[in-house]
Design goal:
The chain contains 2 helices and 5 strands. It is α+β, with helices and mostly antiparallel strands. Strand 4 and strand 5 form a beta hairpin. The chain is rod-shaped.
Length: 172
């Protein structure tokens, strides 16, 4: 009889071991499921954060584009107006640390001197279209805002403000 009882105890031990193994595999599967779910959640949050960062950078660049025309360094004294005489002076200066953007460009869109536009230099001013105020030669996206481009011009005995239509573009 002892032989039979040992055999039945061995069967019970094997069944117990099998149940313990099943339970450990099940726990391992549940833990693996939660780890994968956590990884997907983290990946989703990181990708949405990258989008949020890009949105914030774009809003900052748009704000800079709108506010540059109001800055005394560029303004001609009226609302949303840029003095092109000041642009020519500022063009040669290094403002890379002053503005948190990659590039600032001002284009005269009406009247245009040529279809492709002429870069502004001291020797061809005011018969030019494109003022590159700042360019760090980095990749980025431009956001733009319309502005008036004005300069002082002598007409006979009078000095007048001659204004044209332009676009200020800021790369972020």
């Amino acid at each position: 009889m002892q032989f039979i009882s040992k055999k039945s105890n061995m069967k019970k031990d094997k069944k117990s071991q099998l149940k313990i193994q099943e339970m450990s595999f099940m726990l391992l599967a549940v833990i693996l499921f939660f780890v994968l779910a956590a990884l997907f959640f983290i990946a989703f949050r990181v990708s949405s954060m990258k989008g949020d960062v890009n949105d914030l950078k774009m809003k900052e660049a748009m704000s800079i584009a709108d506010n540059i025309a109001k800055m005394p360094e560029f303004s001609c004294g009226e609302t949303n107006c840029i003095d092109t005489d000041k642009l020519m002076i500022m063009k040669g200066k290094d403002y890379a640390d002053f503005f948190p953007v990659k590039a600032i460009k001002v284009d005269r869109i009406y009247p245009r001197t040529s279809k492709e536009g002429v870069k502004c230099e001291i020797n061809n001013y005011p018969d030019c279209d494109i003022y590159n105020v700042l360019d760090k030669d980095e990749e980025g996206i431009f956001v733009s805002s319309y502005v008036a481009l004005c300069r002082k011009e002598k007409l006979g005995d009078y000095i007048i403000n001659k204004c044209e239509i332009g676009v200020i573009s800021v790369k972020y």
